[in-house]
Amino acid sequence: MVRREPFMVDGKLRQYHQVAPVLDKCKTCYESDPNPLCVTGCAAQCLKVGPFEEIVKEAAGRHCAIYTA
Length: 69
What we know:
Blueprint (H helix, E strand, L loop, with lengths): L6 E3 L2 E6 L2 E6 L1 H6 L4 H4 L11 H8 L10
Antiparallel strand pairs: 1-2, 2-3
C-alpha cells in the first residue's frame, strides 16, 4: 500500500492509504507505532505496510498475497 502523509483532523492524526479506509490515531499512539490501525490491531500480525522492495524480501518463501497501489 502507498502511505500518504498523515494530517491532523480534530486534534487526531489521520492516516490514509490508497487501498484502505481512512484510519485515525492520536499523536501519542502514532509516535509509539506509526503503522496504521489495521496493522497495529491485527491479532495474527499478518498485515504489513511498507515499500514494495521490503515487503517482497519479507514475503520470500511464504504463501502470501502482496497488494500494490
